């Protein structure tokens, strides 16, 4: 509950001098609290008068009060700092609060009168300080100086159609006298209508291009499907053709193998017969060689006569 209240009532822990969270807080006799450095700076300016006052209630003190850190208040402020959401601080691209000291908070509004940007806390302080006075606030912007006339230091709330530039009321009265002028807000409304028309044309063009894109995508997909079908058909034709060729190849190879086998079988039969005939002839040749050395003329003549009779029809060419 205490932490929740700290989060809700953090404005109660702002220093009235620097308008930031209390740093090294001190509480003076009247009960008001300040940053030690802030109240010290205020009283340093009052040293010559020898009268010291509270910047808020104006209660005076004849002697300069001693300052001691309010440890309880310091602890509360420290807890408050840890409970502040991280997104309240300005990051890259954010507009910083011009009043914050130390780490800058993210500004939410800019004042065209004060030419300052404020975070939520300091905006509340600003509205409280200028209560009843009309200050022109706008969304936080880092272009405050560009919104002010550099010559007259007035807000650029008019527009010169003749010169096509933003001007202030004094520019309209002097430098742009007799020019065709209009309020910046009215010119914005006019330009807003033109912008809407331009946007409408762009949106029509975008829609047309998206339709063209979709049509082109469908054409591409159709072409892909058609191509895939053709590829599959060709694959089927060539697959069947390859199978037919493989069958013919196998049949031809089988036929050649059969012819080879028959020819080899015939040749092997002839080889066996020739080898047998050679063996027989060698054996007879050996017998004749032995007969040629015999001393028995009768045996020699009888055997040779018989040999001539047995081989009278021998024709080597016919035998082969």
Automatic annotation (TrEMBL):
Sorted alphabetically, the keyword list is: Coiled coil, Metal-binding, Zinc, Zinc-finger
The record places domain B box-type at 144-184
Does the record carry Zinc-finger as a key word? yes
* SMART domains in the cross-refs: BBOX (SM00336), RING (SM00184)
Pfam family name, one? zf-C3HC4_4
Q: Which residues form the RING-type domain?
A: 15-58
Q: Name the InterPro entries on file.
A: E3_ubiq-ligase_TRIM/RNF (IPR051051), TRIM8/14/16/25/29/45/65_CC (IPR058030), Znf_B-box (IPR000315), Znf_RING (IPR001841), Znf_RING/FYVE/PHD (IPR013083), Znf_RING_CS (IPR017907)
- Keyword RNA-binding annotated: no
Task: Write the protein's name.
Answer: E3 ubiquitin/ISG15 ligase TRIM25-like
Origin species, per record, is Cirrhinus mrigala (Mrigala)
